[in-house]
Amino acid sequence: MNRPQTSVLLACAPVRVLVACLAVVAALGGCAKPLARPIVLTAPYDTERVWAVVPFANESGVSQVDVMAVADKFVSEVEGVEGLRCLPLNRTLAAMKSLGMTNVRDLQQAYTLMRTLQADGLVLGTVTDWDPYKPLRFGAAVEVISAGGPGQNRALDLNELTMPTAETPGGAETARAEISQASRILDGRSNETLIELERYALGRSDPNSALGPKAYEIRIDLFTRFGAWILTRDLLEQEAARLGVPLPAGRAEKVDESAK
């Protein structure tokens, strides 16, 4: 007499297992963290401009720094700026090779390279600090030379990039040549750096992955890309100051209208 009941129970067992699995999946989905919008930089120009990035110099004292990879990180971050486009690094290298350049030594060479590339701005820089072990460190000094400035033969002294003031040698010439400069040392032990890093990483990582934004604190390639973003923002803000363009809250960051 009990056999039919047993058969019914056995028949219902797979259904119960399926319902339980669906409940677990639904619960997990309900706990998923929402994706955040990345902070987008914006250029202070009336029309879209094109920048190019030259391979960086290395004055960090660490021989294994890949200066081509560093320059490529800047290409990616500049390309992500609203109102800017950035030429691929390989195109810049090909143009330099055709001109017989191994680097850019003076403003005349910079303008020659920009004309060849048909670029509006040229980004040069040097790596000043680099430590691939946690706490990570990345430092760089950069400048963007805008097209249209006077052709001068003054040498580009990368030491000046760490002191972008009017008191530095050639400071007045730098102003006439339409150059904006920035320098930073980003230290993984600094709360200021970590706060900025979290803002950058939240919109560029999967919050439901094992590491999420924390991956930017342990991977030097991601930390370097963050550094490129910070320094690109600094350059844009210097450009805005040079052109007299006001920025929301003084930052070259696009205002998120959906957050209002």
Task: Provide a short characterization of the protein structure.
The chain is an alpha/beta fold. It is built from eight helices and six strands. It has a single domain, classed as Rossmann fold (3-Layer(aba) Sandwich), CATH 3.40.50.
Write the layout of secondary structure elements.
Elements: H1 3-30, E1 49-53, E2 57-58, H2 67-79, E3 84-86, H3 89-98, H4 107-117, E4 121-131, E5 137-146, H5 171-176, E6 179-187, H6 191-202, H7 215-218, H8 220-243
Parallel strand pairs: 1-3, 1-4, 2-4
Antiparallel strand pairs: 4-5, 5-6
Helix pairs in contact: 2-8, 6-8
List keywords for this structure.
six-stranded mixed β-sheet; Rossmann fold; 15% strand; alpha/beta; 260 residues; 42% helix
Structural overview:
There is one protein chain. The protein is α/β, with parallel strands linked by helices and 260 residues long. The chain has a single domain (49-254), classed as ABC-type transport auxiliary lipoprotein component (Rossmann fold, 3-Layer(aba) Sandwich). Helix content is 42%, strand content 15%. Helix 6 (191-202) crosses helix 8.
Domain unit count: 1
Give, in order, the helices and strands. Answer: HEEHEHHEEHEHHH
Structural class: alpha/beta
With helices defined by DSSP (H or I, 4 residues minimum), what is the helix count?
A: 8
Q: Could you list the spans in which at least 5 consecutive residues all have pLDDT below 50?
A: 8-12, 21-29, 160-175
- The CATH first-level class comes to Alpha Beta
> Count of DSSP E strands?
6
Net shape:
globular
Largest sheet: 6 strands, mixed
First and last CA, distance: 69 Å
Oligomer: single chain
- β content, as a range? 15-25%
